[in-house]
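Sample 3 of the quickstart, ligand pyridoxal-5'-phosphate:
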Amino acid sequence: MKIPFATFIPMERELEPDLKEAFHRVFTRSHYIEGIEDQKFEKAFAAYCNMEFCVGTGNGLDALTLSLKALDIQKGDEVIVPSNTYIATALAVTYAGAVPVFVEPDIRTFNIDPSKIEEKITSATKAIMPVHLYGQPCDMEPVMEIAKKYRLYVIEDCAQAHGALYKEKKVGSFGDVAAFSFYPGKNLGALGDAGAVVTSHKKLADKIRALGNYGSDYKYHHIYQGCNSRLDEIQAAFLQVKLLHLDRMNTERKRIADRYLKEIHHSEIVLPYVFPETEPVWHIFGIRCKRRNELEEYLAKKGIKTNKHYPIPIHRQKCYEDLGIPEGRLPIAEEISETELSMPMYYGMTENEIQYVIDTVNYFK
Ligand SMILES: *Cc1c(COP(=O)(O)O)cnc(C)c1O
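Result:
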């Protein structure tokens, strides 16, 4: 049996008529940037997140960067980020001119360990950026307490966690502002690049919108040296269609994850730990195994494609050599990069496919 790591086919077959209708609607109107589709999607997505405002952006990285810039985070400032995350989290901080300060994760959940944040706070610290990685909500209660105590902004990176719940509250509704990516492979994906921020602060929403629109608050009036990062009408129309199915599709991922959690039994494999009172959306189902590369090869031979998130931790990437963080300084992030393996996970995965993955993993010798 051949199992891809991920595929869009079952989802796209199902949504094809609605997506085509969305395309025709925009094409017939011949209006492609800043219009009614954008407004409709922003309204719907803000409501979905239980937030007042949503501002569409060109992608998730820009959503993060514009959030930091709107909060006046700049050169000389430090921002706390997890050591185990996708590189975009750190890039947003350095694009804003600030320094990313890495905090190690709780190895059980792969997410930032709140008990290790305070020791990294200095007089230059301006914000914390928790990342709800792999679709698992961070432990937000202690994060928010620390932020309050030290008066730090909280920017949630929700790029992998659309719809995840922490204590029955949606991720993205805890901090000052939250950034989402709608990269096609994300739980809520466009048919191209797209992103958004959500916030309940009107001034912040207005500033982010202006920053992403050439710094303009009114046509040909430029109050900031902004950039061009807007959500275009076609993607906003597609996203409206896909948002209607997000919860149902997340439930499907949960069904797959629950089977993996219950039925993968192997003495050398550690399954992800789910904090009680959270509902992850399983963007990625990451297991850990000391013989990860052997497991990967074995599964590949059996026709099962897997992936690694992420094989090189950020502080060991060439582009961040200047941070001068030596190997061994962030051992948990390094251990995850050496042991994590992501299992196949996609909407439309059949019972037979799930069973085959479980059985094959369990037979690993
Ligand atoms: C995908 C992702 C981003 C960036 O989103 P893009 O739309 O690809 O720019 C940021 N943070 C995390 C954790 C991501 O997974």
